Known about the structure:
The protein starts with a helix and ends in a 10-residue tail after the last strand. 15% of the residues lie in helices and 43% in strands. The radius of gyration is 29 Å and the shape is globular. Strand 18 (343-348) and strand 19 (355-362) form a beta hairpin. It is mainly beta. Among the domains are: 22-120, Alpha Horseshoe (Serine Threonine Protein Phosphatase 5, Tetratricopeptide repeat), CATH 1.25.40.10; 138-285, 6 Propeller (Neuraminidase), CATH 2.120.10; 297-394 and 682-701, TolB, C-terminal domain (Neuraminidase, 6 Propeller). The strands form twelve sheets. It has a four-stranded antiparallel β-sheet, with no helix packed on it. A four-stranded antiparallel β-sheet has the order 5-6-7-8, with no helix packed on it. Strands 9-10-11-12 form a four-stranded antiparallel β-sheet, with no helix packed on it.
Amino acid sequence: MKTTKLVLLTGLLCAALSAGYLASQAKDNKADVALQAAIKTETVDGNLKGAIEQYKKIAQSVNRPVAAKALIRLGQCYEKLGDAEAQKAYQKVIDSYPEQTEAVKAANEKLSLLLRADTVAGKGNKEFSIRKIKEGKDVYVGDVGTEGAVSPDGRYLSYVDWDTGDLAIYEIATGTKRRLTNKGSWDQSNEFAQYSRWSPDGKQIVYDWSNKNGDIDLCIVGLDGSKPRILYSNEENDWAQTYGWSPDGKQILACFSRKDRPYQIVLVSTADGSVRVLKTMEQGWPDNMNFSPDGRYIVYDFPQKGSWESDISLLSTDGSREIPLVEHPADDYVLGWAPDGKNILFASDRRNSPDVWVIQFADGKVQGTPKLVKSNIGKIYPKGFTQKGSFYYGIYDSAYDVYFAELDPETGKMLALTKKTSTRFEGSLTQPEYSPDGKYIAYISVSASHSALSIQSLETGKMQEFPSKLRSFYQPRWSPDGRSILVNGMDSKRKSGIWRIDTQSGIFTLIVPPAPDDRDVATTHEWSRDGKAIFLARNANHLPYQSRIMLREIESGTEKELYRGSRGMFSLSCSPDGKWLAFMRRGKEGFLGIMPAAGGEHRELYRFKQEDLMFVSLRWTPDGKYILFEHVEPGQNKWSLWRIPMEGGEPQKVGLEWDVRILLSVHPDGRHIVFSSPSSIGENSGNWVMENFLPIDKKEK
């Protein structure tokens, strides 16, 4: 009897499931039939308005693939009618149907073409274009860096000549470079230029200057060879940055960071250096700010509360009015205010890719919704508009590859060729770090829109990602018990500290807060072997210029100085038995040495010959006999891996050579290493110009 009931129930269940399936299939078939009927109305009958009504109904279907297709067709109908509703239809596909990859791809392409079509209309043969400026071999966004700007006539780019730290200009047409300041070599002076912006007439440049005391001065220099003059100087400022000139040339737009922590948007008089505060902000300073061409407003971005993502607002230059321009959960930042006065360019990751958008502002009001200009462009460093509306910018486009290699612990020679790892996060993983038991690897996962901590199991290959609210972080270091990872990170206020990440929950906890005056920054870190303390390298940004190695107790926060030297950053690595600390002093007369982990006299193992050694990894072998380090020979571009006995002696080249730096970690077995290295710097990195992309006002046609 029980068996009969079971069979009966099973049959009823199958029948119900079958009925449900058939009903679902019927609905799907009905939606498909309706879509085909609407397409006939559009293409055969030529009845666009009738097709629009049909597509609207189909777009409400529970059949998501069909609904997404209907929205694409709906947008096409609106396009044929010249109706701006087309953009909304395409945007809905992107926002509401992210899993419909083909439809989303088509919608993205349509949105890009819409703006380009508006641009070409009424402009003759001028078409939307993006081209790269050739300024020599790219090192970091080209030889002319990220700190400068384009001249109003589009003839020059200002930049920092990092060979000396001087302000310089680059003539785009000829490739000619000329320094506008002459501070001498780094041996003569530690001063240097930073951000710079051109005057409206193109005859002067205002720039930030880090003076001999480590403070930031605002200076002005002419292109005629006249001596630079200090416009504004105040040792009470932790930081100062210039953003641009007022259209009449009488004011400099800047941001000051005071020692008592608030950030101020200010106007500095070019006549006498007097300052007028426009706005005080607690959260952080803007990535970018610009005057409107009529001088009535300032557009600026600012961090959202408790987050590194930014929104954008307009501030009247008399301080009487503020207007929200872009409010969105995504990270949005200002690129520039076009010379037509109506269009404001900004970058956003709202579609999970770094895109360029434009929004219009006129008559004191925001006009309509943002329009997509260019998708997936990369992280942009704006250099400004020319008078004719061309937009110049820099891109640093890097992808990282991760490799495994095998070493002979006895001879130190490489046994196996490097093998590139392959994961679905390929190109975005960097700074790999073996766990203490060798079963996991932690990575920093980087993209144009966010950074995250990723942990991969070497047994299963499974990858777990922990998103972060920090703007950026780097240098992961596992705790001895494997329960947490240290990173050096920058928060939403752009303040650097050291954070501990729980490897189970992914919770970030600040354990080394930023220095009170931002002048004694913790640059590198390493765990003590008992996990109760960490070693820190602190770099002073003020007189006397000194760097120190500290031992910090985690629970109490107390710090003990272990080493003090002249200015020069350190790399740190604690020996496997916890008794020794290896450190590398980088900078002039750099050296590699060891000292007792509890403090005491240090001993040099190797002194570098090159003048300035930067960005170098330092690791002990698990048996404690050797120290591995990266080295680049003076005058050569090849990085190589070396080892040196902890007792001293001649360093030995391991046999691993690379075109760029090697970010290294050693497996507990002492035979295997993992490292990451940039694989595509220079392919898209450089300076670019975007032309003929601004929407045309129909009244102007």
